[in-house]
UniProtKB/TrEMBL annotation:
This is Acyl-CoA dehydrogenase family protein. Transmembrane segments: none annotated. InterPro entries: Acyl-CoA_Oxase/DH_mid-dom_sf, AcylCo_DH-like_C, AcylCo_DH/oxidase_C, AcylCoA_DH/ox_N, AcylCoA_DH/ox_N_sf, AcylCoA_DH/oxidase_NM_dom_sf. Residues 242-357 form the Acyl-CoA dehydrogenase/oxidase C-terminal domain. The keyword Cell wall biogenesis/degradation does not apply. Belongs to the acyl-CoA dehydrogenase family. Keywords: FAD, Flavoprotein, Oxidoreductase. Signal peptide: none annotated. The keyword rRNA-binding does not apply. Residues 7-116 form the Acyl-CoA dehydrogenase/oxidase N-terminal domain. Its cofactor is FAD.
Length: 384
C-alpha cells in the first residue's frame, strides 16, 4: 500500500504548515484562548484565502477534489500547532453535504465554506453512553419546508426533538448537521443555528475550545440524504478519520517539544536526552505515532474507489482506536518527561496534552471504539 502523498497533497501540506507556523504562535494562542469565541477568525480567513478550505471539496463544487486525503493533511498540520480553528467539524460536515446533499444545499453551503464566510458544525454526541450511529434525538416529518430554505427544490420539513452534547465550535456556525432517529433509520438533518426551537448552552472543554449543548424542541430541519440510507454512518466514519488526523498532528508536535526540551535540559552534567529511561519513553511515543499515522492513511485509502463500506468502517475504527489509546499515552509520556515545566501553562506543550485528552474522549473513548470494532468483526456491520 503506497502512502506517499503526491504533488498536490504535498503542496497542501507545505502551504498549511507555513500558515499554521506563522499564525499559530504561542502568543496568538494565548490571545485566542481568552476571546469570546475561542476561534481564530483571522487564521480561518487566511486558510480560506489560500484556497485550503476549498481544496477538499469536489471539483463540481468549486474545489480541487482532494477529499478525505486533503482533510487529513490539513488536520495533521493544524494539530502540530494546536491551532484554534474548527477544521474537523466544518470539513467533515462539508464532505457530507457534498456527497449526500441536494444541488441547492451544495450551492448554498459549500461556496460559503470555501470562502471562509460560513460553515456548519456537527451535533453527533448525546449525554450518556450513546452510540453516535444510534441517536436518541428524534425527527418526524411535518410537511413541505416552504419558506424555511431558499430555492426551488425545497425538501420535506422535519421536526427534531432531543438534546445534543458537546457540539464543537458553535461560534460562527450558521447551520448544524444533526443526527436523529426516524422510523426508517438514523438520518442527518440540516438545522439553522438560530432556528425556532433551538436552544444553546455554551460549555468549556478540556482543550480551551468552546462547545455547546443544544436542545431541540420541535426544531425545523431539512434532511441531507434520506434517513436510513447510510449518510449518518458515512459522516461518523469521516469524523473518526478526521479526529485521528488531528491527533497524529497533536502527538507529533508534542514529541518535537519533548525532543527540543530534552536536548537543552541538563542534569548531572549531561543532556536529559542521553538518559536511557528518557530515550525509552520517546521511543514508545514514536512507535505509537507511527502506528497512528499508518492506520490513519489506511483509513483514508479505504475510502477510495472501489469502495467497500465494511472495510472503510473497520479501517476508520482502527485509526480512531489508535488515536484514542496511542494518542493519550503519547501526550501523557511527553508531559511526564517535561517534569515540572510540563504543567506550566506558559510553556506550549500543555496545549498538546489538553488537545490529546479532549480528542481521546470525542465520539467515545478507547473502550467504545473496541466495542464497535468487535461488533463489526463479529456481525459484519457497525450499526443500523
Amino acid at each position: 500500500m503506497d502512502f506517499s502523498l503526491g504533488e498536490e497533497l504535498e503542496a497542501v501540506r507545505d502551504l498549511a504548515r507555513e500558515i499554521f507556523t506563522d499564525r499559530a504562535t504561542p502568543e496568538r494562542l494565548r490571545e485566542v484562548e481568552t476571546s469570546a469565541s475561542r476561534v481564530d477568525a483571522s487564521l480561518w480567513g487566511d486558510l480560506a484565502a489560500a484556497g485550503l478550505l476549498a481544496a477538499v471539496l469536489p471539483e463540481e463544487d468549486g474545489g480541487a477534489g482532494l477529499g478525505m486525503a486533503g482533510v487529513a493533511v490539513l488536520l495533521e498540520e493544524q494539530g502540530r500547532r494546536v491551532a484554534p480553528v474548527p477544521l474537523w467539524p466544518a470539513l467533515a460536515g462539508a464532505l457530507a453535504v457534498a456527497a449526500h446533499g441536494t444541488a441547492r444545499q451544495r450551492a448554498e453551503l459549500l461556496p460559503d465554506l470555501a470562502e471562509g464566510n460560513g460553515r456548519v458544525t456537527l451535533a453527533l454526541e448525546e449525554f450518556g453512553p450513546a452510540d453516535p450511529l444510534t441517536p436518541r434525538t428524534t425527527a418526524v416529518q411535518d410537511g413541505p419546508a416552504e419558506g424555511l430554505y431558499d430555492g426551488p427544490d425545497d425538501a420535506a420539513l422535519w421536526r427534531l426533538t432531543g438534546t445534543k452534547a458537546v457540539v464543537p465550535a458553535p461560534a460562527g456556525a450558521r447551520h448544524v448537521l444533526v443526527t436523529a432517529a426516524t422510523a426508517t433509520g438514523s438520518g442527518l438533518f440540516l438545522v439553522a443555528s438560530d432556528a425556532p426551537g433551538v436552544t444553546w448552552e455554551h460549555a468549556e472543554t478540556t482543550s480551551h475550545d468552546l462547545s455547546a449543548h443544544v436542545t431541540l424542541d420541535g426544531a425545523p430541519g431539512e434532511p441531507v440524504g434520506t434517513p436510513g440510507d447510510g449518510t449518518v454512518a458515512a459522516l461518523v466514519r469521516d469524523s473518526f478519520v478526521a479526529l485521528a488526523a488531528v491527533q497524529v498532528g497533536v502527538t507529533a508536535g508534542a514529541l518535537l517539544h519533548a525532543a527540543d526540551h530534552l536536548r537543552e535540559r541538563h542534569q548531572f552534567g549531561r543532556p536529559l536526552a542521553t538518559f536511557q529511561a528518557v530515550q525509552h519513553q520517546l521511543a514508545d511515543c514514536y512507535v505509537d505515532i507511527e502506528a497512528m499515522r499508518v492506520t490513519l492513511w489506511q483509513a483514508v485509502d479505504a475510502q477510495k474507489e472501489p469502495f467497500d463500506a465494511e472495510d472503510a468502517d473497520r479501517a476508520a475504527l482502527v485509526a480512531k482506536w489508535w488515536a484514542t489509546e496511542g494518542g493519550l499515552n503519547t501526550v501523557h509520556r511527553v508531559q511526564h518527561v517535561h517534569g515540572g515545566i510540563g504543567v506550566d501553562t506558559d510553556y506550549p506543550v500543555h496545549r498538546h496534552f489538553l488537545w490529546g485528552k479532549q480528542i481521546s474522549t470525542t465520539l467515545g473513548g478507547a473502550g467504545a471504539d473496541l466495542e464497535r470494532l468487535g461488533a463489526l468483526l463479529t456481525s459484519g456491520a457497525v450499526a443500523p
